[in-house]
Every structure is written in C-alpha cells, then in structure tokens.
Amino acid sequence: MNIKNLDHEEVNKFDELANKWWDMDGEFKPLHQINPLRVGFIKERSALVGKKVLDVGCGGGILSEALRELGADVTGIDASENTIGVAKSHSKLIKSEVTFIQNTIEDFVASNPDERFDVITCLEMLEHVPSPGDVIKACSGILKENGDIFFSTINRNPRSYLFAVIGAEYILNLLPKGTHDYEKFIKPSELAKWTREAGLQTKETIGLSYNPITDNYWLGKDIQVNYMVHARKGED
C-alpha cells in the first residue's frame, strides 16, 4: 500500500474506533446526522441510478450504503483495515451490494488504470492525509470526463478551531478527542487551487452549520467551519 500519502497515526486512530461506526448514538453520531444532508446535496447535482460511484475514505460505509440505496453501483475504499472490515460486515448484514476495498486512492488508481467512475465522493477525508492535493489529483485521474466529484472538509481559521476542535471534541463531546488536527484544516482557496490543478472545475461551495442547542445541522452560505464542494471534470 502507498504509504507516502498516509498518516499512520490517523489510520490507527480510526482502526481503534472501527466498531463504533454503526452506533447511531456513539462517536460517529454526527456523521449519521449529517449524512442525509450530504446525500441530498449529491443527488440533487448528479444522477446516481446505474452510475459507477467511488467513495474515497469511505469509513464504515455510511455514505456508500446511502448512495447504493439510491441505485448507484458503489465502491468504497479506505486505508483502515479494521474500518473496512466493519463496512464489509455491515454490508453483509444488510445484504448490500457495495464493494469495499482496503486501499489508498493512489494505489487504487495504480492497480485499476482503466477504471473510470461517473461520480466520486471524498468526504471528511482530506484533512486526515499529509497531501490533500495528491488525493484530489488521483481522484481526477479516475473520474470520467464530465463526471462529478464531491469534497467536504473543514476551513482553517480561529472560528473553525473553536467550533470543530474545542467545541466539538472538548465541550460538546460530539467527536472523540484528537479526531482533528487544526494544522491539517483546509481553506476553500487551497481546495480550489488543488481542484483547478487537477483539471476540475468548481461548480458550487456550500457550508454545513450546527446548532448545539437544537442539535440540528443544515446547509447554507456559511463556509467558515465545515463546507462541501461540488466540482466537475472537463468543463470550462
């Protein structure tokens, strides 16, 4: 497996949490809560029925399974062996047809040089690797012309540190402590530069906000903390 763009501490961290992925009230509860928003954003911008979809950094398969339910032919990849094991076990339990593979995107592309996908998702993953730009470039290489690609990550500024690290991990206990490294957060301008360099055209950027009082998430114009990007390959 390609280890150049792999943070082994990050992989080990998610290995240890692997059995919690499908606990709706556990450490990954926020992912279950925001998944309908993420899925809605994707399906409103890209046809999914019968399309080949690659979910990069799929984790336990929360997004992958939701996209499969909408009629997509989904492959999920993740570098964590334990996490992929959970994804496979859950998929078998619910009799899903998602294909889960332990791999990095770079190695997946290298071992499947002729493979192309209509849609690629890479959500909550870029802030966990040493070189996000290389991930985006690899994704672009395996995306069909006029194919859609979706990213989500966390902005890097004082407010995002307050909300995504201090608030989410230490005050509200929404996420396990140490989930995020502020230095790896990504400004929208940085993500736009990497997508452009990879031959992708950014179509839309939208924010994801959270109200801790109502325990409610929504999509909107505020991209100061969490945000999602829709890009397309081969369009001016």
Q: Identify the CATH architecture.
A: 3-Layer(aba) Sandwich
Query: What structural class should be given to the helix and strand makeup?
Result: alpha/beta
Number of structural domains: 1
CATH homologous superfamily identity: Vaccinia Virus protein VP39
Helix proportion: 25-40%
Envelope shape: globular
| CATH fold-level name | Rossmann fold
How many beta strands in the DSSP annotation? 8
Query: What's the gyration radius in Å?
Result: 16 Å
Spatial order of the strands in the main sheet?
3-2-1-4-5-8-6-7
CATH class, named: Alpha Beta
Overall pLDDT confidence: 90
**How far is the first residue's CA from the last residue's CA?**
35 Å
Strand content: 25-35%
Biggest pleated sheet: 8 strands, mixed
What is the N-to-C order of secondary-structure elements (H for helix, E for strand)?
Answer: HHEHEHEHEHEHHEEE
Count of helix runs: 8
Unreliably modeled segments: none
Description:
This protein has a single domain, classed as Rossmann fold (3-Layer(aba) Sandwich). Helices cover 36% and strands 25% of the residues. The longest helix has 15 residues. The model has no long low-confidence stretch (mean pLDDT 90). The protein has an eight-stranded mixed β-sheet. The chain has 236 residues and is an alpha/beta fold. The radius of gyration is 16 Å and the shape is globular. β1, α3 and β2 form a beta-alpha-beta unit. The protein has eight helices and eight strands; from the N terminus they run ααβαβαβαβαβααβββ.
